[in-house]
Design a protein that fits this description.
With 320 residues, the protein is an alpha/beta fold. The chain contains eight helices and twelve strands. The longest helix is centred in the last third of the chain and has 18 residues. The N and C termini lie far apart (44 Å).
Length: 320
């Protein structure tokens, strides 16, 4: 396991909410939790935290399909450098794990993700201990779940979303330790909204958002044309429009599935690379978490006001 130190990087992006100066980030990876018999491979987690500060909230971040704990630095480094402990697991679907397509675990990748996430919270003290001095600086009752794409569904399930076949029993796999969420470019409803491929192969995309009752920010790009749906970009707005808990929707103008580049600093899958758009995601997600986790009651409202006041807004916020 390596313990690394990251200096904050400057982002020449609009400042919609001033999070104060970035601080050095300490990061330990991989922190290993032994795998269960069903999972097989060990669970690897990256733990990142600011070098200074107390009463730090926790963000459990779930990567998109095929990614790993090595990705999403533009977002996770930003959160960590501005006052959050960020936990990044590598799920079984990661290309770095290499589970073959004919492996029986593949159909349950979505379920293994939720089990892994709950395991991380169960073993939170073990993970925090990987960064010297961190356990005494964390507020363990302030926990958020955030995720991108497939990771957004993982986070949504922890927040109360149900998934399953169209006429099946929907399981409650939520976790009461998760207080709030941030869902980035996340799948919408299933059934007739799915493409033929998704309908035939991805039954877990049949979602019920009616029980997602905890405060959640949904982030969508108005140019995110997913091959999993016949609907178009507004599909990713469903977690906001169809749940009682999701209270904020940030729509990024021109944003595709990578939302300006959140998967990585040089991610090949990013086709809408935009430093200003990335800055909006960084700063507004930070502001939402600050307010939703009761750290700064004015951060979110200030961020919205600044975004909408711009002469050329990069997005808009809709609130319930």
């Amino acid at each position: 396991m390596a313990l690394t130190q990251h200096l904050p990087t400057s982002q020449p992006a609009p400042v919609y909410a001033d999070p104060g100066p970035a601080v050095t980030v300490l990061s330990a990876k991989p922190v290993i939790l032994p795998g269960s018999e069903a999972r097989g491979a060990n669970l690897k987690v990256r733990v990142s935290a600011p070098a200074v500060g107390d009463n730090l909230p926790v963000v459990l971040f779930s990567h998109g399909y095929g990614s790993s704990l090595e990705a999403y630095g533009p977002l996770t480094d930003y959160w960590a450098s501005h006052g959050f402990v960020v936990l990044q697991p590598t799920y079984l679907d990661s290309r770095t794990v290499g589970v073959p397509n004919d492996d029986p675990r593949v159909v349950d990748f979505w379920r293994f993700r939720v089990t892994d996430a709950r395991r991380i919270l169960d073993d939170l003290d073990t993970l925090l201990a990987a960064v010297p001095g961190l356990p005494d600086r964390v507020e363990r009752t302030l926990i958020a779940a955030a995720g991108h794409s497939f990771g957004g569904q993982t986070s949504g399930i922890l927040l109360g979303q149900r998934v399953g076949p169209p006429a099946g029993e929907y399981e409650d796999l939520s976790d009461p330790r998760i207080l709030v969420g941030v869902l980035l470019a996340t799948a919408g409803t299933g059934g007739e909204d799915l493409s033929d491929f998704a309908h035939e192969n991805l039954s877990y995309l049949n979602a019920d958002f009616s029980q997602l009752s905890r405060p959640t920010l949904v982030v969508a790009g108005d140019a995110d044309d997913s091959p999993l749906t016949v609907r178009g970009p507004d599909w990713s707005e469903d977690p906001y429009r169809m749940s009682p808990g999701a209270d904020q929707l940030l729509t990024l103008f021109g944003g595709e599935h990578s939302l300006g580049g959140i998967p990585g600093y040089e991610a090949a899958e990013t086709t809408d690379q935009s430093t200003p758009r990335l800055g909006v995601v960084q700063q507004l997600t930070w502001a939402y978490l600050q307010t939703a986790l009761r750290r700064d009651s004015g951060a979110w409202s200030s961020a919205i006001a600044a975004l909408h006041a711009s002469a050329e807004p990069l997005g808009r916020v809709e609130s319930k």
